[in-house]
Each structure stands twice: as C-alpha cells, then as structure tokens.
Specification:
The protein is an alpha+beta fold. The protein is built from 18 helices and 23 strands. Strands 2, 3, 4, 5, 7, 20 and 22 form a seven-stranded mixed beta sheet that branches. Strands 10-19-18-17 form a four-stranded mixed beta sheet, with helices on one face. Strands 13-14-16-15 form a four-stranded antiparallel beta sheet, covered by helices on one side. Helix 3 packs antiparallel against helix 6 and helix 10 runs antiparallel to helix 11. It is globular and about 70 Å long. 51% of the residues are buried. This is ABC transporter substrate-binding protein. Keywords: Signal.
Length: 555
C-alpha cells in the first residue's frame, strides 16, 4: 500500500469533474446473466476475459475508492457502491441510494482477499495467464490519474497487467458506442430528478448502453415500472438496479460533485444539480462572458446531443415547453398547460414567442422536433427518453407508424401529448434539450451541419449562435426576438474550448475567463483554502467504468 500511496502523490494531475449504503451484501447464490465460471486451461483474449463474471467482480472489489477520492479527486466526492447516486428519492421520499445499499462493495479496498479468490475461481490464480487488458478514457489529465491509480491497484492487488489508452472526446464516444473496448471510463449526469434517468440507460433500446448488455428481463422491468406507481414502481426500480449490480456491467467509482469558479462580478448565474448552466439573467461589468466549455461538443443539435458540453449551449440558445431555475420548473414556451384527470394527456398552450429570425414559434415546431428525435433514420441516442409517449417506442424501433405517435399540434397554439401511463416527472423531461423545438425548414437546408451554422441554427432561446470556430470557441449573442429579451443583459458569450485544465485555470486567474468548472486536482486544496470564487456544488451523477460484457439476449 505504501507503494500505491507514493504513486498517488505523483498523480496530482489535473482532473475533470464532470463531462458528471446498502446493508445487505450480494449473496453467493446470486443469479446473473453472465457466462459461467471458466476452465483454467483455456487461453483468453482481453475481450473474452472481461465477459467472465468472476473477473468483473474481482476487478470491482480490488479498488480502494476512499483512497481515490481522498488522494486523487479531492473535491468532496463520495465513493460509489451502486449506480444510482445520492440525492434521488423514491415515492416515499427515501433516498434511493441509501435504501438500495452498497451491494457488498467495500469502499476502502478491504475485500482484496475475496477479489483474489474470485480471480482464482475464474481460472487465474495469482493473475497467472491473465491477458493484458486496456482501460480506455477520454483525454483528460484527471481521467488519466484515476486510470493510472486503478492500473496500479489491479497490478498490486491481483497481479495482472493493465494498459491505459486515451482518445479525444468525439472519437472516444464513437469507440465506446461501437463496443471497441474492454474497460472504458464513463460518467452519467441525470437528465431529470428521478432514479429512472440512470436506470433506463441500460435498456436494450437505449442509445447510451455501451456495455453491450441487452437483457430482456431488464427491459421488461423498466417497461413495467413505467406503468406502475408508488411503492410498486419503487420495487421495480430497485430490482432493476439489483440486476445491473448482480451482473456488474458497471464498476462504480464515485459520486460526482460539481466544482465551479465564477468571478465575483458575474451576477445572477445559475446551474442546476444536473449541471445545466443558464445565462439568460447574467450580467457582467462589460456585458461579456468568457466561459470555458472544455472539449469541443460532438454536436449542438438538440436531437443528437448526448453530452453536458453541447447541452449547456443548447440550453442557452433554445427553449422548451418548460424551464428549470432555482425556484423549480416554470412555464417557458408553454404559456400554460392542463393535465387530464387520468394523468395521460398534457395539453400545452404555446405563448406568443418568436424564433431568432422573427418567425413565430408554433406547436408544429415541437411536433416536428419530437418526432424527428424518434425517427429511426435520425438515430437519436436520446430518443428513448420519449418512450413515455404513446406510440413513440414502436415508431423508434420500426414496428409502429408515425401517425400513431401521440404527439400532435392541434393548431398553431395548441400542442397535445398522450402518455402510456402517468409520468410524474414528464414536465421535468420537457426542460431537457432533446425536447427543445427546432425549425424543419432550417434542418432540411443542411441535415448534417445546420446546428453549427449561424445561418441555419435558428433558435428560440435567450441567445443565438453568432460564430462557430472549430477547436477554438463558439460565440453567442443576444436573441433580440426572445420573449424575455428585456431580461437578457449580456452582449456576448465566448464559449472557449480549452481542454487542458491547467491552462484554463491559468486563464481564469489571469482574468481571461469568467467561469470554469474543470480543475487540476493538485490545485483543489489551494482553491478551497484561498479562492472565495471556488465552489463545490451538488451534482446528480456517477463516475464509473463500464465493462464490454457482450451479453445480447435480443439476438
């Protein structure tokens, strides 16, 4: 352990924070969908070995999470022992994580002997004949520091060889989606404040299920939970997480916190516990805001985006039916709404609002945008978020017709949505970027590139796209046609693409940036002690590794 501690002191590298107690242990007779224990005589490839359940559990138990958060990340994170993070409630008001428990995962690495035995049971006593596996992460000194620490823990505790490899963000996302990895870094920030935002990630139809784990029983549980209410729904959601943790498709590492530094003269800024920044009310002395978003977004198309960086830009250039602020969920493009007595039909009245080019925002814009996100040809990763809507899943999966999707513009001002079952957080969902309206005429001018072209990226939010300089910055200016334009005080936002956290912090401390939320780990103790603008805020998210388990019951 001394060797590891010494190594960790060297790992005081930069770290990107985001983009994001069970009392009963898992029993030895747990049922999993993983492959059975293997025979020692066989020679395994790196891809095959992570598909062995005992190997995944050994790797999970051979990590000291407490040491990682205290010596590496050092920003108040909590060691993770399940997938759903702290802060989300079940129907009784109980914290889901506290009730769900720890699944027998010790946070301090005290289960090393059990991990060694599991590896031996899998046919690799003392790590003998274990192939070299690779941890893949997106380029970041922080992710690298964690990977190096885990690499050393697995070597020291299990006597196995591990390589680490990094890729730039967009390439990394594609590699993970395609399943070209053995173990990969991942992080998930909630899209809304309900445990489902973490659990439906692992359905076979989720565009973000990169573990290559497709299990019919799991899909059935999630679908049943969408029709259930109260404690019946709670029981299904707890069962769903139990399946994830029984198969160990994920290796939980820690629960996120959101570290942010904002200059004192930046007034009225807001970020939610889901990490969504909103600048519609912000003011600065000179009217400009220098904001670092880190990596260049893969896309800023509301239907196609699946990351926090792109989502924050969308959140300031588009506006959905509802918007969330520090006071809760409020009407935005919806001037008002009604909900039927059975909780199935939502009818929204669209307010008098305009797009950035002066055209009126219509109910038809929402109908087009939502159905586009469900279009199988568009292949939106977040299309599954609309499966609460009647006919949506069938159309998305190619078994239903577009006309049977219950998303309808009754006229220019009236938008009606019919759900499969009452969904208490449906209004919360409508604040999310996948549910933002887009203009059909703009999309069809350039289906691949419209969202990053100022001439076609016509939004309805407080700001509009002015410039997109690849690899450098995205410039936003006020949308003079926004329905609350009189409240917009900034004259320009420069969203900078500074990937290196040390460079970004230097720019912040030199007065060249106003907002950053990614920091070198080695600097966090100093920032906590000396910088009053540095804050550690709540964040609903989990940092974890995923295994490429290769379980596909659908095919």
């Amino acid at each position: 352990m001394k060797k590891l501690l010494a190594l960790l002191l060297v790992f005081m590298l930069t770290f990107s924070l985001a983009a994001c107690a069970k009392d009963e242990p898992v029993t030895e007779t747990q049922e999993t969908t993983a492959a059975p224990t293997t025979e020692a005589a066989k020679t395994y490839t790196a891809e095959e070995v992570v598909q062995i359940y005992e190997v995944r559990k050994a790797l999970t138990l051979a990590i000291d999470r407490t040491l990682l958060v205290e010596q590496i990340t050092r920003a108040g994170q909590l060691p993770a022992t399940g997938f759903v993070p702290n802060g989300l409630k079940d129907s009784t008001g109980a914290d889901f994580r506290a009730t769900g428990g720890d699944y027998g995962i010790a946070t301090d690495g005290s289960a090393i002997d059990e991990a060694k035995q599991l590896l031996a049971d899998a046919g690799f006593p003392n790590g003998d004949n274990f192939p070299t596996i690779t941890i893949l992460y997106n380029t970041s000194e922080g992710h690298k520091a964690i990977a190096e620490a885990i690499q050393e823990m697995w070597k020291q505790n299990l006597n196995i060889n591990v390589e680490i490899a990094n890729q730039e963000w967009a390439v990394f996302q594609d590699t993970r989606h395609q399943g070209n990895f053995q173990v990969a870094r991942a992080g998930w920030i909630g899209d809304y404040e309900d445990p489902m935002t973490f659990l439906d990630l692992w359905t076979s139809y989720s565009g973000n299920n990169d573990a290559q784990w497709k299990v019919k029983k799991y899909d059935d549980i999630i679908e049943a939970s969408k029709l259930a209410t109260g404690t019946d729904r709670d029981a299904l959601l707890y069962e769903a997480e139990q399946m994830i943790m029984d198969d160990l498709i994920v290796l939980p590492i820690y629960y996120y916190t959101h570290t942010v530094a904002v200059k004192e003269d930046v007034k009225d800024w807001y970020t939610s516990t889901l990490g969504h920044f909103y600048f519609g009310n912000v003011s600065t002395p000179d009217g400009t805001l220098q904001w670092n978003i880190g990596s260049e977004p893969k896309t800023i198309d509301p239907a196609l985006n699946s990351a926090v960086d792109g989502g924050n830009l969308i959140n300031n250039t588009y506006e959905g039916l509802m918007r969330k602020d520090d006071e809760g969920i409020k009407e935005a493009m919806a001037e008002s709404y009604t909900i039927s007595e059975d909780g199935l039909v939502y009818t929204f009245t669209i307010r008098d609002a305009k797009w950035a080019d002066g055209q009126p925002v219509k109910a038809q814009d929402f109908e087009y945008a939502w159905k586009r996100a469900l279009d199988p040809a568009v292949a939106a990763e977040y299309g599954f978020q609309m499966f609460y809507i009647k006919g949506a899943q069938e159309y998305y999966e190619g078994t239903g017709a577009l006309e049977d999707v219950m998303i309808k513009a009754l006229d220019d001002k009236t938008f009606e949505v019919t759900l499969n079952a009452p969904t208490p957080y449906f209004l919360d969902l409508t604040t999310f970027y996948t549910f933002m309206p887009v203009r059909q005429d703009m999309v069809e001018k350039d289906p691949e590139g419209w969202a990053s072209n100022p001439e076609t990226a016509i939004g309805n939010g407080p700001f509009k796209l002015s410039e997109y300089k690849t690899g450098d910055r995205i410039v936003l200016v006020p949308n003079e046609n926004y329905w609350k334009a009189d409240q917009t005080k900034l004259t320009q936002i420069d969203a900078m693409m500074i990937v290196d956290q040390s460079t970004a912090l230097t720019a912040y401390e030199a007065g060249e940036l106003d907002i950053i939320d990614s920091f070198p780990v080695s600097e966090i103790p100093r920032l906590i002690a000396e910088d009053p603008t540095f804050q550690i805020m709540p964040y609903v998210g989990t940092y974890y590794y995923i295994f490429n388990v290769g379980i596909d019951e659908m095919n």
